[in-house]
Each structure stands twice: as structure tokens, then as C-alpha cells.
Design goal:
single chain, 14 helices, alpha+beta, 2 domains
Length: 420
Amino acid sequence: MTLNNLENFFRDNADHIKQISDRKDTSIGFNAFALVSDVYYRENFHSDIIAAILNPHSSHGEGALYLKEFLTFVSEVASDEGKRGKKKGYFLKLAKKLQALVPTVDDSVEVAREEGRIDVKITAPNWTIIVENKINGAYDMDRQIPRYIEKCKNVVAVVYITASAPGFPSDNGWEQGDMGMVKPRLVPVIGFSETWSIKNLAEDWIGACVKVARDPNVKSILRQYAELLRHQSGETMNQDEVRKVMVSMGANKIGYADLLQVLKEMPRVLAKTIVDRFKEHPALETTGTWPDSDKKDVSHGTVAVLTLKEVVLSKGRKKYTLGTGLDICCETLNSDGITFFVRDNEIGIEPNMLLSFLRKCGFEHIENWDRPVLRIDANWVYAHQEKFLGKIAKILDYLAENRKRMEEIFASVIRKEHKV
């Protein structure tokens, strides 16, 4: 693995990595569907929910209202596909057919689940629509969609639902003429997309149903189902991005173990860089890293330790020596950042006693942490190392310039005249 390989890899995958990072929190909070999480990953779960919403005879009590919204939504998806693609006039024709069906829909339309193994079948006297659910990533059986069309009468459309990216059925085992039968009827629909211009089930069908629903309980269920679709599609998008990164690793000849080692070394290199930059700073007694991976070699730690010159304090005839300084946690900058420590402490001085003195540098009190802490965004640090080093330099200069004030604070604690 060469430096050029790594540069190409990170340049090519910057967007994928950022999207994975931005989407890392996929929690849906307190959601009825999350409470049955062992169920909603099953292949037929979404089919059950979609069929229940579409069915004019369902207990939601809204008749064919949600079915009309569905046909409107699918016709709009087909229309968008026709406008985006070249020579896709069949999408525009299908969109017109579907839109023409909307006014004819009433409570006589039947919605069936798993009839002839079809996920959801919508049947009116003169037409049929097949809904194939692949939200959970189920595979197509041999010649699955052509067989379904042959089983049903007057199939107007096949709505093929995937999680986050439009999909086309597998043509495994397809016979001559199957493509011509499926393609003019197929409408690819997705559960959710982060791209606002792409219509999706969560926002553009369920969202529309929420607006027209009259029962507040039904509204709540619809909203929670939309949130589930967003959640699962987000998980799928993460998986897709990770797969792209994995493919790129092979293309750029990046070994998985090598990549892990590079990432592991970055905090160590940063800690060593900090130590090397400030080892001659006049405010410092010693510099080093911690923890030591080898006691004979202090260059392997991920925490840069910058120890200030000792503070010597007197109480009567007795003298006390205090060690103070900064721990810079290069591996956990977002959480631990830079902390101010007090060591060799016989007097009982707590680091947070200096908090008012250190606030000027951006330090703050963190609950359950006995040190003043300056948290720093790790992404910013690794992208702007010189600026980060400049920030450390300013802190050290401030501590050097105001050393007398720090000694006065410690002395006042010893004399017990007041506490800081």
C-alpha cells in the first residue's frame, strides 16, 4: 500500500465516508414499530402494513382514501421517471393510466395479501396492480414478476418497492418476451430518500395520508410508520455506502488491516507532533506521550502530556511542589479534548479550582470530570493541524504570562482565606 493509493482512496471516498458519518445515528426513539424490532425486519412485515393502509375495508375507517393517495403517488413517480430519462415514454403513458384510475377507486376495490404469493394485490373489476415489497432486501425468485403478471388479469402496473435506491427485478430465468411484458408496467418506488427531488413512500405517500387522515390515532400510526421507513432506508443507505468504500479499497489496492493500522496511528502521530513542536516551549518542564506501549519508548502514546514548570508553594516552613500541565487526548478529542491537570498534590488542590482562570482559553466544567476541559472537534483538528497547534501555543503562552496569578490562586487555597 503506497501513499498514492491512500490519497486516491480517501479522495474518491470522501463523500461516501461523510454520508455514513452524518447518518450514524439511526435511532427512531420511542416508536411502536421499534418495540417490535424483531418483527419489522421480517420480509412480510412491510407488506402487512402497506396492505392494511391500502385496504378500503381496513379498521382505519377511511375507506379508499389512502388507496387513492397511493395511486396518485405512484403515477407521480412514473411521471418523474419519464421526465428524467431519455426515450422513456412508456413511463409517461403509465402515469396517465394510473392517474385516470384515481377517480374510479371506491370501496369495491379489493386489497389482498399473499394471494398467489403476491405481496400485495390491488384488484378492481377492470384492472389489477401488483405491489412487490423488497424493502428488507429480499431476493427475486426465478421469473417472479413475469409469473405474477401472467397469473393476474388486466395488470396495469407493478409497483416495485426497495428501501433507498430504485431497483429493477432480477431477470433470473426470464423467457423471451418477459422484458417486454414487465418493463412498460414497472414503477420503481423507494421507501425513503435524502434527495428531496426523488419521491418516496415515507414522505410522498404516507406523508400525504397523514395530512388527510381524520382520526388522531391513525395519524400517529402513519407518522410512526413513515419514521420506520426513514430509519430502515437510512440503514440500507449506510450499507450501500460502506459497500462502495469496500469496492474502492480493492480498486485502490488498500488492505483492510493496513487501513486500520493507518487510522490507529493517526492519534499517535498527532500526539508525537505536539510533543515535538512544544518540547522547547519556555513554559514547559517536560513533554511526552501517554500511555506508553513500551516503557522504554514514550513515543507511542495517544495523549500528548505537556507538563508546566513546577509551582513551589510554602505553608509556614514547609514547601510544597505542584505539578501542573495539559493532557491532549488525540484519540478522543471530541469527548476529552484538552484537560488541565494538577499532580504531586499534597495540598488537596483540585484542578477545577482554576476553572475561572482557564475560562479565557475556552475551558469548561464537565459533570463527573474533575478537570477543566476544552473539547475540540476531531475532524477540524486532523484537517487543520497547524491551526490546532497554534491554539495550543496560545494556551501555553497564556499560562506562562499569567503564571503568577495561578500561583496566587493556589496560595489562597493553602491559606484558606477563600476558595476559588
